[in-house]
Amino acid sequence: MLKYEWKKSEKEIYLPKEIPTLITIPKMKYFTISGTGNPNNPDFQNKIGVLYSLAYAVRMMPKNAHTPEGYFEYTVYPLEGAWTGNVSNKDSFAYTIMIRQPGFVDSDIFNKALEIAKKRKPNILLDDAKFETIEEGLCVQMMHIGSYDDEPVTFEQMDKFISDNNYKRTTKTHKEIYLSDPKKIVPEKLKTILRYGVAK
User: What whole-number distance in Å separates Cα of residue 87 and Cα of residue 150?
Assistant: First the structure.
């Protein structure tokens, strides 16, 4: 059975150009966890660990004698974050970080993943994780290459694009999708998708 790879099958969503483009994001399933404050704090990294422990619990279920109905081989989706706050003051941030899940995942699978994760690597933050369906709708997005601190330059391009095309931003929250591992990639080569909701 061929493995489903989001990088190849969903290029429009996960491999945008380095120019602003419009895209409609449908309902998708996610494991999520929310918080506030500076993403450089250990608490943030701990929350990321919680999401990955759940995501891989689902991914590896068939090897643990539990194959969900409709299961197929797939590559785990990338980490995403929905952010609000002042970019010049990271302590002001409020966020929900998330990892998208394949269509076969439901609340029962989420609860099973929680059970597996708690046995393998107990973490009090697992109780803060949620299973949610999120629909972003019409958005503008763009690939940002470089440091997270340089994102305002990319957002300026996106803001100009929607202004020039008679769109307006519908929310103060923006989405970031992390395609690079900052522990392995130098800041100037990091790839991050930036996105926010728009309307005419």
Answer: 10
Helix-then-strand count for the chain, H and E: 5, 7
Q: What are phi and psi of 77, to 5 degrees?
A: -70, 160
Q: Where are the domains of the chain?
A: 6-199
The structure tokens listed for 47 are: 């929350």
- Any residues with CB less than 8 A from the CB of 114 and at least 6 apart, and which? 54, 57, 126, 129
- For each successive 10 residues of the chain (200 residues), what is the average pLDDT? 90 96 98 95 94 97 93 97 86 95 97 96 94 98 96 96 98 96 93 98
User: Which CATH code, of 3.60.15.10, 3.40.50.11440, 3.20.80.10, 3.60.150.10, is assigned to 6-199?
Assistant: 3.20.80.10
Largest CA distance in the chain: 55
